[in-house]
């Protein structure tokens, strides 16, 4: 039996790969052989970085909370320790939002954390 080289399934598969490679530089967007490798690598990076994004955001929230805590005269680690002792359960995303958008509410939380550390 002869090998199919220009059948519709094969053509559609090539078309799909080249569509995914749209915007790549040089041969990578037009040559199937190189585009196939580039797309595979790109999809691998996309999968990996979807997981990494979570850690990136957590780091950003911690930086924002730390800056707000420092302006109140407290370090981030002492603040988190105070929250735990006070029994305040707020995630870092919510704390960062409060620090950025509602400074008065954040000051109240810092005061409660400071009070729990002193007790």
Helix content: over 70%
**Tally of structural domains:** 1
- For the record, what CATH class applies? Mainly Alpha
Which series of helices and strands comes N to C? Answer: HHHHH
How much β-strand is present in the residues? under 5%
Report, as a whole number of angstroms, the end-to-end distance.
Answer: 85 Å
The average pLDDT is 93
> How does the overall form come out from the CA principal axes?
rod-shaped
Largest sheet, in brief, is: none
The total of beta strands comes to 0
Low-confidence stretches: none
Tally of DSSP helical segments: 5
For the CA atoms, what is the radius of gyration?
26 Å
Task: Give the CATH H-level superfamily.
Answer: Ribosomal protein L20, C-terminal domain
Structural class: mainly alpha
Could you describe the 3D structure shown?
The chain has a single domain, classed as Ribosomal protein L20, C-terminal domain (c-terminal domain of poly(a) binding protein), CATH 1.10.1900. About 75% of the residues lie in helices and about 0% in strands. It has helices spanning about 10-20, 30-70, 75-85, 90-100, 105-119.
Walk me through the topology.
Elements: H1 8-20, H2 32-71, H3 76-86, H4 92-101, H5 103-118
């Amino acid at each position: 039996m002869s090998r199919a080289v220009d059948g519709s399934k094969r053509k559609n598969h090539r078309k799909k790969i080249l569509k995914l490679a749209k915007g790549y530089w040089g041969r990578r967007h037009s040559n199937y052989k190189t585009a196939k490798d580039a797309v595979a690598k790109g999809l691998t990076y996309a999968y990996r970085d979807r997981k990494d994004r979570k850690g990136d955001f957590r780091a950003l929230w911690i930086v924002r909370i730390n800056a707000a805590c420092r302006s109140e005269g407290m370090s981030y680690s002492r603040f988190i320790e105070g929250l735990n002792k006070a029994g305040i359960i707020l995630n870092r995303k919510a704390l960062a939002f409060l620090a950025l958008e509602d400074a008065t509410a954040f000051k109240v939380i810092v005061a409660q954390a400071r009070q729990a550390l002193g007790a």
